[in-house]
Design brief:
The chain is mainly alpha-helical. The chain has a single domain (about 60-270), classed as MetI-like fold. It contains 11 helices and no strands. α4 runs parallel beside α7, α4 packs antiparallel against α9 (about 185-220) and α10 (about 230-240) packs antiparallel against α11 (about 240-270). It starts with 14 loop residues before the first helix and ends in a 9-residue tail after the last helix.
Length: about 280
């Protein structure tokens, strides 16, 4: 008698579906509009503290007083003009810093000779706070717009250079071996492997650069500015208008938060091919 062995069919799990399930149910699941939860919670705590008297008006104006001050600045003063002036300074300085930092990072990251010329001075600059150099910039460029833009650009340059350079140097050597195996030339390897591989570092540097540019903006607008949010805050400080000061700080915060969110959104779109906890 011959026994017949019946085996169950082997089912190969669909790894793609499993990844989708983990992405839907796991810790990487993204909640719609979740980036507003933190600011909304901070606003709620601020409102409750002001309403209950835990936060004194002399220390921090209540949110509703800040809204009234915002309306007054918008209607009776040139708040829109101050916002445009600050955005223009920040945008011009940030653009100059990002372009210069990226170019220097590419030259240094792709060439040993370029690294020997560029990396040392950048690292020295990194250890010297840019804000400490402002008196020297005033002596060189005066106290006009040129000094302000150059200061913001120099502050933005360093994080772009550092993170882009690290991204270029962090490319896995196996890709170079693979390129040699399939016959990709040096130029194609840089365009299709090295530069896309360094893009996450560049975008991370952008997030730091945006924050740094706003830090520089806050400082330089206190030097002989005739327009801008910093100019408005300086006038409010002279007259003891804490609600107007808070208006300026809130606007700075909105600038930074929106800019950082825009960089993160761009990163998720551009780096959609990368499987990370965030995306």
């Amino acid at each position: 008698m011959t026994a017949t062995l019946h085996t169950a069919p082997v089912t190969i799990p669909d790894t793609t579906d499993q990844r989708v399930v983990r992405r839907r149910l796991g810790p990487g699941h993204r909640i719609r509009f979740s980036f507003w939860f933190g600011p909304a919670l901070a606003l709620a705590i601020w409102s409750i503290g002001s309403a209950t008297g835990l936060i004194k008006p002399a220390i921090l104006s209540a949110p509703w007083d800040v809204v009234v001050a915002f309306q007054d600045q918008w209607v009776n003063h040139d708040l829109l003009g101050n916002i445009v002036a600050s955005l223009q300074r920040s945008l011009v300085g940030l653009t100059l810093g990002v372009v210069t930092g990226a170019v220097l990072a590419v030259i240094s990251g792709l060439s040993r000779f370029g690294e020997s010329l560029i990396d040392g001075p950048i690292q020295i600059k990194r250890s010297v706070p840019t804000l400490a150099i402002i008196p020297l910039f005033i002596a060189w460029f005066g106290i006009g717009e040129e000094m302000k833009v150059i200061t913001i650009a120099l502050i933005s340059l360093v994080p772009i250079y550092i993170h882009t350079h690290n991204g270029l140097r962090g490319i896995d050597g196996k890709y170079a071996e693979l390129a040699e195996t399939i016959g990709i030339n040096h130029g194609e390897f840089i365009r299709h492997v090295v530069l896309p591989g360094a893009l996450p570092g560049f975008l991370l540097g952008m997030r730091f650069a945006v924050t740094s540019s706003l830090l520089g903006l806050v400082v330089v607008e206190h030097y002989n500015a005739v327009a801008g949010i910093g100019y408005m805050i300086t006038l409010a400080e002279q007259y003891g208008q804490t609600d107007v000061i808070v208006v300026g700080l809130v606007i700075y915060g909105i600038f930074g938060y929106c800019a950082d969110s825009a960089v993160r959104f761009t990163g998720r779109r551009v780096l959609a091919w990368r499987q990370t906890l965030e995306g």
